[in-house]
């Protein structure tokens, strides 16, 4: 067994484990398929006596009894077919449902670094397309294997019993067919993998276009996007054609091989000794059986490849499920922290990237203080703010909260201590009220909600909407302006009452007018907490207890507004520059 075959076997075993809870449904499906195939064989085995006794011997009684028999047989066949299809689909849909649920939950538990590396489109396509592929291909191949496999074997046994001389030819062609099948399935496995990857690209590309629709329109990117998609789309089609071509060629080859067997039978029958011993019924039945075997044989040829396709899909799903989730080994439960934060010689590079992003970052924020981070874009401010909730693991150094190293804290308790308002506000397709209270397990009183909505100046625009706070905003809040979205995010943070607050350019989407309006809300928000504020407007920063100036991942200056101005360094320059433009 080769390595890849061993892996396939493992994947199949793992997939089978998903079927175990539904084993009775599976058993019923198997019985249905067996019954269906055996009834067909039984029906054909009655053909010789129908011809020999009924037609040749002109037995009218026999012929009168045959119609009833035919109808009964077909009723039973229908019942078996229904049981098989229904049960197999029942099991299959359950397996798809389980896999989808697991993927969904796993995506949520994967670290931020995983999501940095994978596009949303690719991940969505696994939940929707790949899981469905697993169901379709495996259930189809299973039913072909059982139903057609039993049918073909049954016919073979029957033919050998009727005339082993005529049927012996099958022993010769079987190995030839096996060789063709094995060649075909290798090629199929490769092509299926390509198709699945290509499908992921189709989704990724579409997703990119839909997300960046406005940018494309304003920068005239239609042509570029059109061509990019055309390439990917065409690649997917080509793979599909290759798959179909392989299937068609293999089917034709097998049928030609089978025609030799048929020709051989007719030739053999021409010998006088053979003619003596063969009845018309037997001969007709053997020839008819051979013809009837062509379709199931064709399906059996591709059954392995079909199954391989399902396995390829399963493998890609399992690969995601095997991705390590966020390390949550900390046992310390942080509760009611005061909010003393300390960074000690923190070095950091993003996982999978060589470039070091933070060098030797050390600073402290005492409980209740406001620390402002300033510096050019790309200097590492956002990175610092995403290390605090442990979205990423440090390369070296320590971060402590109230003297407790955050590595030893459980993730949920750590993240419960902070509210983060970032540049990119994520809103869910729900009411404004539910977006504000998002993630809170305890119910929130209406007064409290109104209070924060008022303070964050959400009420101001919500009152003009048809249902006030209960207005449903579209997906990701598309019907709201950037400033309105940020006010909702601020209300969300206000409601949370966490001891630590991180504001990452939280007011960047606001115009001066709205910023002035919510300045009071922000001041309210900052009160009584430890705050890490990243702001692009220096006016927000002046009041900070400590200002940290960053450049290319390093802290180059630290101090209060007056101290830094007196030092006449980078901060002083920045200040003068902005002071000049704002006047
Ligand atoms: P700032 O917030 O100060 O503008 P960032 O902390 O976002 O800067 O970025 C600091 C550096 O880290 C930049 O050079 C940026 O390219 C890099 N960086 C930011 N996010 C990632 C990421 N998810 N993966 C890899 N590199 C990143
Ligand atoms: Mg940033």
Automatic annotation (TrEMBL):
Topological type in the membrane: Multi-pass membrane protein
Pfam families cross-referenced by the UniProt entry: ABC_membrane, ABC_tran
Localization in the cell: Cell membrane
Domain (ABC transmembrane type-1): residue spans on this chain: 27-309
Keywords: ATP-binding, Cell membrane, Lipid transport, Membrane, Nucleotide-binding, Translocase, Transmembrane, Transmembrane helix, Transport
Domain ABC transporter intervals: 341-577
Main location: membrane
Domain of life: Bacteria
MF GO annotations: ABC-type oligopeptide transporter activity; ATP binding; ATP hydrolysis activity; ATPase-coupled lipid transmembrane transporter activity
One Gene Ontology CC term in the entry: plasma membrane
Gene3D superfamilies: ABC transporter type 1, transmembrane domain, P-loop containing nucleotide triphosphate hydrolases
N-terminal signal peptide: none
Coiled-coil regions, chain positions: none
PROSITE patterns the record matches: ABC_TM1F, ABC_TRANSPORTER_1, ABC_TRANSPORTER_2
NCBIfam families: MsbA_lipidA
Protein name: Lipid transporter ATP-binding/permease
Species of provenance: Arsukibacterium ikkense
Organism lineage string: Bacteria, Pseudomonadati, Pseudomonadota, Gammaproteobacteria, Chromatiales
